[in-house]
Amino acid sequence: MAAPIIWDEKQKVTGNRVTVDPITRLEGHGKIEIFLDDSGNVKNAYWQIPEVRGFERFCIGRRVTELAQITARLCGVCPGAHHLAATKAIDGCYNSKPTEAAFHIRDTFYHAHFVHSHIAHFYALAAPDFVCGPAAPAAQRNVLGVVANVGLELGSAVLKARAEAQKVQAIIGGKPTHPLMGVPGGVSKAISKEEAKEIQGYADGLVEFAQTSLKVFHDVVLSNKEYVDIITNKDLYYHETYHMGLVNDKNQLEFHDGKVRVVDQKGNECDKYDSFDYLDHIGEAVEPWSYEKFPYLKKPGYKGLVDGPDSGLYRATPLSRLNVCESISTPLANEALKEYRETLGVVGREPVQYTLATHWARIIEMLYAAEKLKEDAYSDKLTDPNIKQFDLVPGGRGVGCIEAPRGTLTHDYTCDENGIVTACNLVVGTTNNNGPICMDVAKVAKALIKNYDVSPGLLNMVEMAFRAYDPCNSCATHSLPGQMPLTAEIRNADGSLYDTITRN
User: Fold this and answer.
1) Spatial distance between the Cα atoms of 400 and 395, rounded to a whole number of angstroms
2) Which of 242, 331, 358, 367 could be a cystine partner for 210, CB 3.0 to 4.6 Å?
3) How far apart, in whole angstroms, are the C-alpha atoms of residue 239 and residue 242?
4) Residue 485, pLDDT score
5) In sequence order, what DSSP letters do the residues of 61-93 get, joined into one string?
6) Distance (Å, rounded) from C-alpha 441 to C-alpha 449?
7) What range defines the domain where residue 499 resides?
8) Is there a cis peptide before residue 22, judged by omega within 30 degrees of 0?
9) Furthest CA-CA distance within the chain
């Protein structure tokens, strides 16, 4: 395998503004604006989301049972997460709980979703920065460049594993991308013994693939001292924030159900609550330069884009989930968790705050999800035909909270006695992480760009700050901050600029 290219030649820039537009290898649109002072050092850098989707508004007035399909179309990356969160919220609107068999089928579906999502992010979006190197030519920093470096055999295994995880979702959800599984109090179809056997075969292979992925991370990243130095450099990808994630009744890692647990900068539990009560614990601030909201913990409050114990900003990522849980219920992933903590120098319950360690945490979660999928696949509950509740009456409020691959996801619906939605609030995984992403982007830019010296590799390292979060901006943009900033450029026939009109 060719050695990764980590650093490239710097070039002087003129002017006091550097724009990265579009940013790459994420879902949705965005840009980074970097402002330099008169010495050519970074004064500030902004992670900006110029798109707005507004799903919270146009869900109002629809039948609540439609939202499991409507919100699944927020994007093509996380439809399974939105579908399941919506289904749980619809359960609440009907004052129902899924049958044991239905819950198990949903659980099986969701662990397959996690596997396929984590495969896609690590190999297609994150791996180019490590396998090819952050300063490799842009044309090489992609999935094809990764395959060229690691070999066709591993590349084929990646495609096969992701396809098999998708097949499990298709068997259970009816479709691999926009599932039709969830109904109030249950699921839409039972799983046959033949389908269960097929799922079992896929699950066996996915556990093996997740173990292979963990080895790849060891061989490519952890064996490279320069990468380890970058990951553990507190002047780069590092912030001391609170962390949030779901846990079961043993404070173990949980994706589908459980309580929301929050730990502070020392790893101490500082909050734990049922998802229905999230508004008592979480607030949402807005800033005039972004269509994304900025969630925060109400106890410390919103102090702007700063970290530390006095700031209510928190992270909800794979890194956070491993910080929040005390252990993992599956054996292989739990052993991987122990190694992860020991390698990164965790003392007691001290949280890992290195942003780039999120990639390692994501692979550990992939292994956990594959192990859980295997457990689910071999359970008799998977083929239990008792999959629905009947005689349900709509009316009231329901809150569905799960862990999306990108972070804690909450759907909050209220409907009337006719089942028509009267209120809707979505707190998306990426939205939870908006403040920390902004801080990470600014910190890395300030650390790397000095004296007007910029290079494509350095700008890509600034982008690496947000890629660790696996952001999905299409899911996250619902807020109208009160302004509609607009710049219109009028150009002549030859392309030259004639006039610029700015509206604030």
Assistant:
1) 16
2) 367
3) 10
4) 53
5) TSBGGGHHHHGGGG-SSSHHHHHHHHHHHHHHH
6) 12
7) 11-51+451-503
8) yes
9) 70
Q: Which two tokens stand for residue 265?
A: 């900068």
Confidence at residue 478, expressed as pLDDT on a 0 to 100 scale: 61
Integer Cα distance of 355 and 134 in angstroms: 16
**CB atoms inside a 10 Å sphere around CB 31:** 14
Looking at 353, 382, 397, the residue that finishes a domain is 353
Which candidate, 333, 401, 384, 392, places its Cα nearest to that of 362?
Answer: 333
164 within a domain of the structure (yes/no)? no
User: One-letter amino acid identity for 56?
Assistant: E
User: Is residue 375 a part of any domain in this protein?
Assistant: no
Tell whether 349 and 243 lie within a shared domain: yes
> What per-residue confidence (pLDDT) applies to 385?
97
How many whole angstroms separate alpha carbon 398 and alpha carbon 390?
18
Exposed/middle/buried for 145, CB within 10 Å: 0-12, 13-18, 19+?
buried
DSSP state of 350: P
Give domain status of residue 308, yes or no: yes
Is pTM beyond 0.90? Reply is yes
CA distance 277 to 71: 22
Chain centroid to Cα 140, Å, comes to: 25
pLDDT value at residue 19: 96
Q: Which of 268, 269, 267 is nearest to 259 (CA)?
A: 269
Residue 159 domain flag: no
Helices (H), 275-357: 318-324, 331-343
| Secondary structure of 145-198 in HEC code, one letter for each residue | HHHHHHCHHHHHHHHHHHHHHHHHHHHHHCCCCCCCCEECCEECCCCCHHHHHH
Q: What does the pLDDT read at residue 482?
A: 43
- How many domains are contained in the chain? 2
Burial code (b: 16+ CB inside 10 Å, e: under 16) for 333-370 equals: bbebbeebbeebebeeebbbbbbbbbbbbbbbbbbbbb
| pLDDT < 70 positions in the chain | 477-486, 503-504
- Listed in sequence order, the residues at least 6 apart from 317 whose beta carbon sits closer than 8 Å to its beta carbon are 358, 361, 406, 407, 429, 433, 468, 469, 470
CA–CA–CA angle 269, 97, 370 (5° rounding): 60
pLDDT in tens, 106-141: 999 999 999 999 999 999 999 999 999 999 999 999
pLDDT at 214 (0 to 100):
97
Asked which of 329, 353, 377 is the last residue of a domain, the reply is 353
Q: How many CA atoms lie within 13 A of 251 on its CB side?
A: 15
What are the residues whose beta carbons fall under 8 Å from the beta carbon of 38, sequence distance 6 or more?
A: 16
> Taking Cα atoms as reference points, which of 392, 245, 232 lies closest to residue 319?
245
Nearest to residue 232, comparing CAs of 312, 340, 146?
Answer: 340
SS (H, E, C) 214-253: HHHHHHHHHCCHHHHHHHCCCCCCECCCEEEEEECCCCEE
